[in-house]
Each structure stands twice: as structure tokens, then as C-alpha cells.
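Example record for the data management plan.
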Amino acid sequence: MKLLLEMFTYPFIVRAFVVGILVSLCAALLGVPLVLKRYSMIGDGLSHVSFGALAVALACGWAPLPVSIPVVIAAAVLLLRMTESSPMGADAAIAVTSASALAIGVMVTSLTTGMTTDVDSYMFGSILAMDRSDVALSVALCVSVLTLFVLFYHKLFAITFDESFSRATGVKVGLYNTLLSVLTALTIVLGMRLMGAMLISSLVIFPALSAMRIRKSFQGVVLCAGIMSVVSFCLGLTASYLVSTPVGATVVAVNLAAFLCCCAFAALRRR
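Corresponding structural encoding:
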């Protein structure tokens, strides 16, 4: 208990909790429609695009977040257009974009700054990476993401389950698919500081899959995914502090444990 109380005396821990809870909630809510639309790996692709943009920004001496946010949003919209109008499937488009962006990021890093602490923190996450300006920007953007998700909840629900019917009833399917991609892009960029490019997509996928094992309605899955994601992040960050393990990997391990518990619960309920 003394260690737990001592943990909150460190400003960087408090900043990590604030940003991590908001990012986890955003990722979980967006993860439900993405998983149901079989578009969940977009998080992995966009995280690699973000790493490539961050590598270029660091090499040029620019601020990483202002550079990566518009680049990742453009990549999200481009991926959406490729999957809609190209014979290339969604999985192939994401794989091509992901591999290309990661390769560019690694090449730029090796030719310029090398594998510095900053680059390593973007690859694998770091609890020390968040400063006050990052927290302010992250909170503002996360609140915007949550607000837009709530405002357009019913439209996102409609395009998740039946795009053809939604289009026939006058819903602007392309607009709301673009909105979903942009919100996902923002969440991925914000979460990379804590989770890293290699692990951030787990916040999108695990809570949604876990919630689907114990809830059936869309609303129930969304609420359950949000709660599980926030609780898993808090447990993961606390465990990371107590046993001195990397934050991103510990949070993923907790999410994996939650997923396995939900699978076991679903199996027992079927019996």
C-alpha cells in the first residue's frame, strides 16, 4: 500500500495515468466497430506510419506530434480509399502501408540520429515520454474523439452492421467511415508515447474481443470494452511500476489475461 501511495507522488506517473486512461477508452470504443468491420489491423498499420513520420520529424529537428498527426490522418483516409476502390483487399493494403512506413522510419533513423532514447520510446513506449504539453494536447484530442464518438454513435452503429442498408436510407457511409478512420488515427498517435508503435494496436483489438465474449448487444460490448480497457491499463501501469517492467508490454499482458478469462467464462456459460 505504501508503494502504491508513493507511486502517485511522481508527476510522470500521474501524467501517464491521465493520458493512458483517456487513450485506452478511445481505443476500446473505436475498436468495437473496427473489429466488427474486420478492419482492426488498421491500428497496426497506422502505428507504423506514425513511427515513420516521427522518425522523419526527429531527424529534421521538428516537434514529433504536430508532424505525425496530419500524416497519420492522411494515411488513414488513403487506406480507406484503397480498400473501397482498389482490387487490393483491406488486409493487403494495411500490410503494404505498414511495412513501407516502418522501413522508411528505420532507414531514416539509421542514417541520421541512430537508435536514440527518443526513437526507442516511440517503438516500445516509455512512461517518461509524456511532458506537460503532450498531456494537454492528448487530453484535448481524446476529449474530442470521445465527443465525436458519442455524437455519431448511431451512425457508426449503422455503418458497422449494414453499409448497404445505411446507404439506402440516406446515411453518408463514406463520410462516417472517414470519421472512424480519422478518430482511430488520432488515438493511435496519442497512444504511441506510452505503448509504442509495436504494441498500441493491442488497445484497439483486445478489449473489443474480450467484451464480445461476455456481451452480445453492440451497446453492451462498447460499454464493457471501455471499462475493461481502462481497468486493464490501470492494472498494467501499476504492475509495471511495482515490478519494473516496460509499461506497454505489461498493459498488453494484462489485456491478454483479461481476454483469456473472458474466453474461459464464455466457454463455461455455453456448458
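Summary line stored alongside the record: DSSP finds 13 helices and no strands in the chain.
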